[in-house]
């Protein structure tokens, strides 16, 4: 999951950067196409306005002869006063009979109209006239009166294109006919043009912008080839992708950091406490004189969901550092109640030892928690013993009161791992204790020539002088047991008598 999250953290910003680059490039090309379409429409509307004005003025004169000298003079005035019209004339029977240039004799053939728009104006999109050979004109003719306006065919398209293969043009909405065009034209564009709505689209080949006229029956369009869109995307990607890579690396580092936090022992401990991954093993405590099992120490173990067992010397310090040791102690109490309530009820002279951490001894809640445990399990205080290491006694005043309160309940208290800490003698004389547990490191020196081999005798004599019952930890050989027995040690705990075992095995061996 961490690897997938890290990969997503890297890839997602890059994909986002590519998307932004594509989106930004598309927006830019659409803006350019729209600007061109707007300019084509502006020119076309200006030309159409002048054509309409010319028609209205000529028709308002009601000339008996449209080609009279007076009317031709009127046409000339309209021509000279126009910025978009090349000539104004009169068409009859598909012939230009006269214009602002004069009478044309029998007339110049202009051919049949390409189409008639909704306003009753016929459009001839490409007409060649004798007085301007080789130059195509567009002729708009009012069918009712015959008056015509002549413009250069490409006048409305005389727009500077910043790319040579772009397309611009004008198409009739109702007729769905192409009026003017410059550059490649795709027939399918007419479908969008016919709807008469302002549009922005990308069909995979062209970015298309359409601008319908609000007054006239046509729509201007501009199209930009996709090759420029891709080029723009590459340019934007050169800027945005490095930013995306940098962002991805930052996110990946964040995921890595959070993953390490989540996979750290304190984080795993929190999950394990909720998921009930902990269990207890019990190591018997034996009376060295009679061989009778006097009690057992509850030892917490942690099995991960994949079956892996984590050592207590790893997770207990992590629980202390992570502020979870109190919760771990509470878990031990709950497991003791679950495991041994009936066993202790059947064997009231048997006890279970529970390890308390320094945080437990310094907590105001521990005494109440122990009392609740006894009540829940239905057992007497003699069925429980608490063990604390020397570190738990560092805050002397608070620990002293806690130990007094625990002993007042009738629960025995042992100092664990004695001799491995500091100022051990001062602890023994300061606190009211019931048991002293000799650390395994001193038991291991029995029968050896080690420099510390005599320390165990001093510890035993010290405990006797203070009327403490003595428990030796880590007894593995009969020779060690005999030595301890001869020197007045009361109890022993170690592999000689039994390794830490599940509650079922403890119960069956205790009964035996």
From TrEMBL:
<keyword id="KW-0472">Membrane</keyword>
<keyword id="KW-0973">c-di-GMP</keyword>
<keyword id="KW-1003">Cell membrane</keyword>
<dbReference type="InterPro" id="IPR024744">
    <property type="entry name" value="CSS-motif_dom"/>
</dbReference>
<protein>
    <recommendedName>
        <fullName>cyclic-guanylate-specific phosphodiesterase</fullName>
        <ecNumber>3.1.4.52</ecNumber>
    </recommendedName>
</protein>
<keyword id="KW-0378">Hydrolase</keyword>
<keyword id="KW-1133">Transmembrane helix</keyword>
<keyword id="KW-0812">Transmembrane</keyword>
<dbReference type="GO" id="GO:0071111">
    <property type="term" value="F:cyclic-guanylate-specific phosphodiesterase activity"/>
</dbReference>
<dbReference type="GO" id="GO:0005886">
    <property type="term" value="C:plasma membrane"/>
</dbReference>
<dbReference type="Pfam" id="PF12792">
    <property type="entry name" value="CSS-motif"/>
</dbReference>
<dbReference type="InterPro" id="IPR050706">
    <property type="entry name" value="Cyclic-di-GMP_PDE-like"/>
</dbReference>
<feature type="transmembrane region" description="Helical">
    <location>
        <begin position="236"/>
        <end position="258"/>
    </location>
</feature>
<dbReference type="Pfam" id="PF00563">
    <property type="entry name" value="EAL"/>
</dbReference>
<dbReference type="InterPro" id="IPR035919">
    <property type="entry name" value="EAL_sf"/>
</dbReference>
<feature type="domain" description="EAL">
    <location>
        <begin position="262"/>
        <end position="512"/>
    </location>
</feature>
<dbReference type="InterPro" id="IPR001633">
    <property type="entry name" value="EAL_dom"/>
</dbReference>
């Amino acid at each position: 999951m961490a690897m997938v999250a890290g990969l997503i953290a890297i890839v997602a910003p890059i994909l986002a950067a590519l998307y932004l680059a594509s989106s930004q490039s598309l927006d830019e090309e659409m803006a350019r196409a729209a600007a061109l379409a707007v300019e084509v429409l502006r020119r076309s509307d200006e030309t159409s306005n002048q054509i309409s004005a010319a028609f209205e003025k000529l028709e308002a004169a009601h000339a008996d002869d449209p080609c009279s000298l007076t009317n031709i003079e009127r046409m000339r005035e309209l021509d000279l006063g126009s910025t978009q019209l090349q000539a104004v004339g009169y068409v009859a029977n598909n012939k230009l009979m006269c214009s602002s240039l004069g009478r044309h004799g029998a007339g110049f053939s202009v051919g049949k109209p390409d189409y008639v728009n909704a306003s009753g104006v016929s459009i001839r999109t490409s007409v060649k006239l004798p007085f301007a050979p080789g130059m195509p004109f567009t002729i708009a003719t009012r069918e009712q009166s015959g008056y015509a306006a002549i413009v250069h065919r490409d006048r409305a398209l005389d727009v500077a294109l910043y790319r040579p293969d772009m397309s611009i043009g004008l198409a009739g909405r109702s007729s769905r006919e192409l009026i003017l065009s410059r550059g490649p034209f795709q027939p399918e564009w007419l479908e969008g043009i016919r709807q008469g709505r302002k549009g922005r689209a990308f069909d995979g080949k062209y970015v298309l912008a359409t601008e319908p006229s609000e007054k006239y029956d046509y729509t201007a369009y501009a199209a930009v080839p996709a090759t420029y869109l891709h080029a723009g995307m590459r340019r934007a990607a050169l800027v945005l992708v490095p930013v995306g890579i940098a962002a991805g690396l930052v996110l990946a580092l964040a995921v890595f950091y959070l993953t390490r936090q989540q996979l750290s022992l304190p984080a795993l401990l929190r999950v394990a406490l909720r998921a009930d991954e902990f269990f207890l093993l019990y190591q018997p405590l034996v009376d060295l004189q009679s061989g009778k099992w006097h009690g057992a120490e509850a030892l917490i173990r942690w099995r991960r969901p994949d079956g892996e067992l984590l050592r207590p010397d790893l997770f207990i310090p992590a629980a202390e550092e992570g502020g979870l040791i109190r919760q771990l102690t509470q878990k031990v109490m709950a497991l003791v109640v679950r495991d041994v309530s009936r066993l202790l009820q059947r064997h009231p002279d048997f006890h279970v030892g529970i390890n308390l951490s320094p945080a437990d001894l310094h907590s105001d809640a521990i005494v109440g928690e122990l009392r609740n445990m006894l009540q829940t399990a239905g057992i007497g205080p003699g069925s429980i013993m608490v063990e604390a290491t020397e570190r738990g006694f560092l805050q002397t005043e608070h620990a002293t009161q806690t130990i007094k309160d625990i002993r007042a309940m009738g629960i025995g208290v042992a100092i664990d791992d004695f001799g491995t800490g500091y100022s051990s003698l001062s602890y023994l004389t300061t606190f009211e204790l019931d048991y002293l547990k000799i650390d395994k490191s001193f038991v291991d020196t029995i029968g050896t020539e080690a420099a510390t081999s005599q320390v165990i005798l001093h510890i035993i004599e010290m405990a006797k002088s203070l009327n403490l019952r003595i428990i030796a930890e880590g007894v593995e050989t009969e020779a060690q047991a005999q030595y301890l027995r001869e020197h007045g040690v009361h109890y022993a705990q170690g592999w000689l008598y039994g390794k830490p075992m599940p509650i079922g095995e403890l119960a069956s061996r205790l009964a035996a």
